[in-house]
Each structure stands twice: as C-alpha cells, then as structure tokens.
Specification:
Number of strands of chain B: 9
Number of strands of chain A: 8
Strand content of chain A: 25-35%
Strand order of the largest sheet of chain B: 2-3-1-4
Helix content of chain A: 10-25%
Distance between the termini of chain A: 24 Å
Order of helices and strands of chain A: HEEEEEEEHHE
Shape of chain A: globular
Strand content of chain B: 35-45%
CATH topology of one domain in chain A: Peptide Deformylase
CATH class of the largest domain in chain B: Alpha Beta
Largest sheet of chain B: 4 strands, antiparallel
Structural class of chain A: alpha+beta
CATH class of one domain in chain A: Alpha Beta
CATH superfamily of one domain in chain A: Peptide deformylase
Number of domains of chain B: 2
Radius of gyration of chain B: 20 Å
Order of helices and strands of chain B: EHEEHEEHEEHEE
Oligomer: heterodimer
Distance between the termini of chain B: 36 Å
CATH superfamily of the largest domain in chain B: ACT domain
Structural class of chain B: alpha+beta
Shape of chain B: globular
CATH topology of the largest domain in chain B: Alpha-Beta Plaits
Chain lengths: ~170, ~180
C-alpha cells in the first residue's frame, strides 16, 4: 500500500472524463487500497476519486464515519464504488465542501439530500446503495470528479458561497 | 519585488475593473490578491499588487490620475513591507460562523466585536447589511471567525447572552464543518 501524490488544479486530469473499469482485477484492487490509504492520510479526508491521484478511472472511495458530523449520521463506513451510476436522487442540502485538489477554497455547494447509487464493490459485486446527508454529499462530490467536474463548477454565488480557505491543518 | 495595497472606490458602473486593470497591466504590476464588491451602489476594490522593480508609491500613484479625473474614482496606493505579505492564510484555531440579527440600533457591531477582541478571537470575514422594510429595518451581520484553542466557549456564550438581552438581537455561533473531499 502507498500514499499517492494528490493532483492539484489546474492539472488537466481533473477535467477529464474517466473511463469505466473493465473488471476488479488484483491490480485494480491494489490501486483501491492505495486510494483508501491516500484518503486516510489527508487530515479530515472523507473521500477521494481516482483522477485525484492522476488515474482517470471510474473509482471513488468514501468514508464519513470519522467525521464529526458525518459520523453521527447514518453511514456505510468505508464505501468503495467502481463504475458508479446515480439511479435516483432527491431533496436539497447546502454543505460546505473542501477539496484536496483545490486547496485554496471551500464552497457551499447545493447537493441532493439522498442518492441511490448502482456500483461494483471492491470484490466486483454489483450493489445498490442508498445514502443520505453528508455521505450522500461526499458521493456526489467524488462522482463529479469522474466527469471532470470540480466543486467550483457548482458554486452559485461568489459572495455567498465561495470562501477563501482560512485554515490549513 | 515590491508589494502595494491598492483601493479603489466610486459610484458603480461598467468599466471600472477594465480601467484599473489596464493601468496595472501597462505598469507591469501583477494582481496578487483581490476582492471587489458593491456596497450601497459604490464599487469597492481592494487589491494587493506586486511589481518586479517598483518600491515606491510614487512609481505607481501618478498613473492613476486619469482614473481619478476621468472616472471620478477615489484611488489610494500604499507600500507594503515584504514580510507583511503572506500567501498562506494560516490560522491555528477553529473556524466558526457567527450570525447576528435584530432591529437596527447603534452598537450591534461594536458589542460583538469587543467581546471577540477580548477573547482574542480573530475576525477573518465580516459582512453587514440593513435589510427589511424601510420603517422596520433589520440589521444583519455575519462573521467568520477563528477561535483559538483555550477560549472558554461558555464564557463567550454568557457575554453574548448579555448582548442578546441588552440589544434584543439574535446571536448564533456554530462551527464550520467542511467536508474534506
């Protein structure tokens, strides 16, 4: 296992559309281990997408269980989503997001309150996952990375929603 | 490398940023950091600019004469010491949002800011507005603050309670919980 270097905007890989994964091979599985380790090595990190480490593959990892607020909500612990598709979403919530790949800003982004996601798990088994609250935000943010979308693309108002980051931990 | 602060204020209309940035480009100045907004119809710009060689205000200030005369804008330039300019916004405490609102009356900003200063809480962002009907104005203030470790939150709450009663305002303090993704 290894902590991989994080690609930071304006690295072009962050604006690419990632390719589907053909199958969860031993190699893909080892890469997922590295993604998890990279996410955990970032202070407060609760999610990461493969393009953030320079691999344009449709893989995201989310774990909000250690987050102060996210951990108090219903969550799945460590979620590995390969080739995820959103089947349905509903409701609205505004959450302050920060991104390892855009280190200078945080922003309030409007996201769905709940999502229903179809994906392969880390063993290649198809699963349907229903997620709510902070975990659902993390899934939507990470899935955006697979389509080359950054949270800055979703900011509605500079004055009300975009914040210069005040704190590096 | 010389750094300067530049502020520009004047009646809002299209073309202010175009004109100010043209002067800066022709001088060879870089815009390092800036924020611009409209306050009650006045366009307000504050910029930190840098130049490879300039070190004196006199190298820059005269170039803004056409902007002052032509557009009626107030422009001021100040030299900054290099050690005063940091790119990192490093704060060591815990970020919080404080929102304050109530019927408009004197002293709302000062009462809250005075308590924060006494507790050594740094205000990192502040917006105030008067909203509501003309005969029933409501004052709204939103602050982003950095609360250092060791600040007694209960004491801060007690002081805010006094302000709530004294000025009949609502004050809420909540941590900023960003999701790191």
């Amino acid at each position: 296992m290894a902590v991989l270097p994080i690609r930071v905007f304006p690295d072009p890989v962050l604006q690419e559309k990632s390719a589907p994964v053909e199958g969860v091979t031993a190699e893909v599985s080892a890469f997922i281990d590295d993604l998890v380790e990279t996410m955990r090595s970032s202070p407060g990190g609760v999610g990461i997408a493969a393009p953030q480490v320079g691999e344009p593959k449709r893989i995201v990892v989310v774990d909000v269980s250690a987050h102060r607020r996210g951990g108090q909500e219903q969550n799945h612990g460590l979620l590995v989503l390969v080739n995820p598709e959103i089947l349905a979403m509903g409701g609205k919530q505004l959450v302050r997001e920060g991104c390892m790949s855009v280190p200078d800003y945080t922003a309030n982004v409007q996201r769905a309150q709940w999502v229903l996601v179809d994906a392969l798990d880390r063993h290649g088994n198809r699963k349907i996952i229903e997620s709510l609250g902070f975990e659902a935000v993390a899934i939507q943010h990470e899935m955006d990375h697979l389509d080359g979308i950054l949270f800055l693309d979703r900011v509605v108002s500079i004055k009300n929603d975009l914040f210069r980051r005040k704190k590096y931990r | 490398m010389g750094h300067f602060s530049l502020s520009v204020v004047g009646r809002d209309r299209p073309g202010i940023v175009a004109e100010v940035s043209r002067v800066l480009l022709e001088l060879g100045c870089n815009i390092e950091d800036s924020t611009c907004t409209i306050l009650s119809g006045q366009f307000a710009m504050i910029l930190v600019i840098a130049h490879r060689e300039f070190s004196s205000v006199a190298d820059i200030d005269p170039s803004f004469e056409p902007v002052r005369k032509g557009m009626g804008l107030t422009v001021s330039v100040h030299a900054l010491k290099d050690e005063e300019v940091t790119r990192e916004k490093r704060f060591t405490g815990r970020p919080h949002i404080i929102s304050v609102y109530g019927a408009d009356r004197p002293g709302i900003v000062h009462s809250v800011a005075r308590e924060l200063a006494r507790c050594k809480v740094n205000i990192t962002d502040l917006n105030t507005q008067v909203v509501g009907a003309q005969d029933r104005p409501v004052y709204v203030m939103v602050l982003e603050v950095d609360i250092p470790e060791g600040v007694d939150m209960k004491e801060l709450e007690r002081e805010f309670d006094k302000i709530r009663k004294e000025l009949s305002v609502s004050i809420s303090v909540r941590p900023i919980e960003a999701l790191e993704l």
